[in-house]
Specification:
The complex is a heterodimer of chains A (about 325) and B (about 350).
Chain A lengths: L10 E4 H15 L3 E5 L15 H5 L4 E3 L4 H13 L3 E5 L10 H9 L1 H4 L9 E6 L24 E3 L4 H13 L4 E6 L7 E4 L12 E4 L4 E5 L3 H14 L4 E5 L2 E3 L3 H9 L4 E8 L4 H12 L9 E5 L10 H4 L3 H13 L1
Parallel strand pairs in A: 2-3, 2-4, 5-7, 6-7, 10-11, 10-13, 13-14
Antiparallel strand pairs in A: 1-8, 6-12, 9-11
Chain B lengths: L8 E2 L8 E3 L5 E3 L5 H26 L13 H8 L8 E3 L5 H6 L4 H8 L24 H14 L6 E6 L6 H13 L3 E7 L2 E2 L2 E2 H4 L9 H4 L3 E5 L3 H16 L5 E6 L18 H8 L3 H11 L5 H23 L19 H15 L1
Parallel strand pairs in B: 4-5, 5-6, 6-10, 9-10
Antiparallel strand pairs in B: 1-9, 2-3, 7-8
Helix pairs in contact in B: 1-2, 1-11, 1-12, 2-9, 4-12, 5-6
The chains are: A alpha/beta (about 325), B alpha/beta (about 350).
Bound molecules: thiamine diphosphate (TPP) and magnesium ion.
Chain lengths: ~325, ~350
């Protein structure tokens, strides 16, 4: 296992490698950083994201925990109070439900509960999302539920470069971060990674494709669906922008407004069920902040309002490229 | 890491009979099962092995999504399930108790339909007192406690048997539900299949305790640890626990100490975290082989009949698998079924769109 470079030379990596590189770098940089969770030590995680970390940094800093999500997150609160920088892994984001209380009402609120005495430099990593035929609960994209528990940031990279830099930032951030890793992209998306001393701060969305007719807005794996949809739309004569939000909290309101103002039309895409999803927040924000620039109503494309189905049927549930394309056409053509 | 030594025996040693089936296939104590029961157990254990083999083969052919084998745990699963009367008692599985589910009344077709994505045929038939497999570790335990509580409130003479793993014993759901079951004094039998692993995490990293059965003391219920590879010991402990539940004696915790011989599931590679010697040692004490030796020594089956049985079991499964492959795959509409009693209007509209898209 090679140590990641900390100099700014672009290197081609998968998202998985980029995350691993960030963990290596931050553990090397600050000895208070701890990595723990189910199967992250000896095995290196069920996806092998943490492979090599335990060998390199030892069993006191990288360790397997008992099977207990509530305790993993709750103990992170205590470890942080005790001066550590915990980077716990929840094996799948769908199992953050087991730790819901410890994440929202405890971890996210602890700075406030302790009147500022205990900030919570904790980064919870968890993979999520569909498209890879996982068993029940393993694909549920529940990240937006934590937008309702203020105090925690929600970071959702879609590219290796962001995964690398934003995970480093998350670990250095004095506030808690939920770092969502798109499991279907772990090994399929590769790209150049440049380690930056001053990376784009949290709360900056990025236009990943420029267009003039409609803006497709997404985060995490859905960004790539939007990019594919944008290419298809191009052949149909529609020019689509794709905006990668990168973080849900903080939300880049100015960037969002600007990206939509430039086209006058917006489609928001997410894997979580439509009703009550973060798309509603985006749509409401655009109506409040950019109403006069909108040429047509903001359209949301979400998962269906049903439980995440068994693998064989996930395409019926998920926002697929054809669904995004037809939403964009509707936005443009009425 | 070698396997934990198996110290069979009750925490409260009054709670069970002495019944053993040793590795040599020789029984000691009082044989707790009739000839018919032994043969039923043996058949289920063989069938479980055949299901593992077939499902793994189908997974490699991409006809099954993901499969978690039972291998090595057959005596623990079958011996406990056989203590139930499927017409009277409930069975609440975790996700590695295939032979228990089948024995409790899940038809083989439905069983394979679930694994092979023929979802319209995969349900648990009306009247079968079985809950679906649980993928969220330990979440079935509070359900089982509540179900047993309902039996008690309705004065129904029925026991509930719930399974979980050694890993599950670390979840809050485990503690909360066993404590509740103790307080409510419900007719529950908790069977912990301690197969020494939760994915890659060995038992000694799961708990600093030597025993999971000993937790029963803290819940005010009897607890017993048995050699989970011993069909007779598992059955005797389970049978006692079921009787106690039926007689108003409250819940019991049974820890079956066994070993997960196979991979965690078909995406796992155990060579990444454990030594082959450990697996070989476990393989040398295969629970089905113990029963097989006993069956032969007692003359319950002739060698010829035994060979015939094995062929029949595999032929039956293969026929089932082929008939399931001919069943239709579910339509997109399936995802909207059974979500609500009546779908909300907006979801109904999504259903219409989805069906239209699916036809395109
Ligand atoms: C709440 C929850 N957390 C994590 C997982 C991922 N996971 C699936 S199986 C497993 C290990 C379970 O171990 P154990 O309870 O011993 O059962 P076994 O697999 O050995 O039968 C884990 C961690 C899960 N399914 N549910
Ligand atoms: Mg286990």
């Amino acid at each position: 296992m090679q140590e990641p470079q900390t100099v700014a030379a672009a290197e081609d990596m998968s998202i998985l490698e980029a995350i691993r590189a960030a963990l290596f770098a931050e553990m090397a940089r600050d000895e208070r950083v701890l990595v723990f969770g189910m199967d992250v030590g000896t095995l290196g995680g069920v996806f092998r994201v943490t492979q090599g970390l335990q060998q390199h940094f030892g069993g006191d800093r990288v360790f397997d925990t008992p099977l207990a999500e509530g305790a993993i997150v709750g103990a992170s609160v205590g470890l942080a109070i005790g001066g550590m920088i915990p980077v716990p892994e929840i094996q799948f984001l769908g199992f953050t439900y087991q730790a819901f209380h410890q994440i929202g009402p405890q971890l996210a609120r602890f700075r406030s509960r302790s009147r500022g005495r205990y900030p919570m430099p904790v980064t919870i990593r968890a993979p999520d999302g569909g498209g890879v035929r996982t068993p029940e609960f393993h694909a549920d994209a529940v990240e937006s539920q934590f937008t309702q528990t203020p105090g925690i940031k929600i970071v959702c990279p879609a590219f290796p470069d962001d995964a690398r830099n934003m995970l480093s930032m998350a670990i250095r951030d004095p506030d808690p971060v939920l770092f969502v890793e798109p499991q279907r992209l772990y090994r399929t998306v590769r790209g150049p990674v440049t380690v930056r001393d001053d990376p784009l701060p949290f709360g900056r969305a990025r236009i990943v494709r420029q267009g003039s007719d409609v803006t497709l807005i997404a985060w995490s794996a859905a960004v790539h669906l939007c990019l594919t949809a944008a290419s298809e739309l191009q052949s149909a004569g529609i020019s689509a922008s794709v905006l990668d939000l990168r973080t849900l909290v903080p939300l880049d309101v100015a960037g969002l407004v600007q990206a939509v103002t430039s086209t006058g039309r917006a489609v928001v895409v997410h894997e979580a069920p439509l009703t009550g999803g973060f798309g509603a927040e985006i749509s409401a924000t655009l109506h409040e902040e950019a109403f006069l620039s909108l040429d047509s109503p903001v359209i949301r494309v979400g998962g269906r309002d049903v439980p995440y189905p068994p693998g064989a049927l996930e395409d019926a549930f998920l926002p697929t490229v054809p669904r995004i394309v037809s939403a964009a056409r509707k936005a443009v053509e009425g | 890491m070698t396997q934990q030594p198996i110290e069979a025996g009750a925490v409260d040693s009054t709670v069970t009979r002495d019944a053993r089936l040793g590795a040599d296939g020789v029984a000691s104590g009082d044989a707790p099962m009739s000839r018919e029961q032994v043969l039923e157990a043996y058949r289920l254990m063989l069938q479980s092995q055949a299901i593992d083999d077939l499902a793994i083969k189908l997974q490699r052919l991409k006809r099954v999504g993901l499969y978690a084998p039972v291998q090595g745990q057959e005596a623990a699963v079958v011996g406990s399930a056989l203590a139930l009367d499927p017409r009277r008692d409930w069975l609440v599985p975790a996700s590695r108790e295939q032979p228990a589910m089948i024995r409790h009344g899940l038809p083989l077709v439905n069983f394979f339909a679930g694994y092979m994505g023929r979802l319209d045929s995969a349900g648990i038939p009306e009247g079968v007192k079985l809950l679906p497999r649980q993928q969220a570790i330990a979440a079935q335990l509070p359900h089982a406690a509540g179900l047993a509580w309902a039996m008690k409130l309705r004065k129904e003479r029925a026991a509930v048997m719930v399974y979980c793993g050694d890993g599950a014993s670390s979840e809050g759901d485990f503690h909360e539900s066993l404590n509740l079951a103790g307080v409510m004094h419900v007719p529950l039998v908790v069977v912990v299949i301690n197969n020494q692993y939760a994915i890659s995490t060995p038992f000694h990293k799961q708990t600093a305790a030597q025993s999971l059965a000993s937790r029963a003391i803290g819940y005010g219920m009897p607890g017993i640890a048995v050699d989970g590879n011993d069909l007779f010991a598992v059955y005797a402990a389970s049978d006692d626990a079921v009787r106690r539940a039926l007689d108003g004696g409250g819940p019991t915790l049974i820890e079956c100490r066994t070993y997960r011989v196979g991979f965690h599931n078909t995406s796992d590679n155990p060579n990444d975290y454990r030594e082959q010697e450990e697996v070989s040692a476990a393989l040398a004490d295969d629970p089905t082989t113990r029963v097989e030796r006993y069956v032969l020594a007692q003359g319950l089956l002739s060698p010829g009949a035994m060979a015939q049985l094995k062929v029949e079991i595999r032929a039956e499964l293969d026929a089932v698998q082929r008939s399931v492959a001919d069943l239709p795959r579910p339509e997109a509409d399936f995802i909207f079924q059974n979500v609500y009693d009546v779908l909300p209007a907006r979801t109904e509209q999504q259903r219409a769109e989805t069906v239209k898209e699916d036809r395109r």
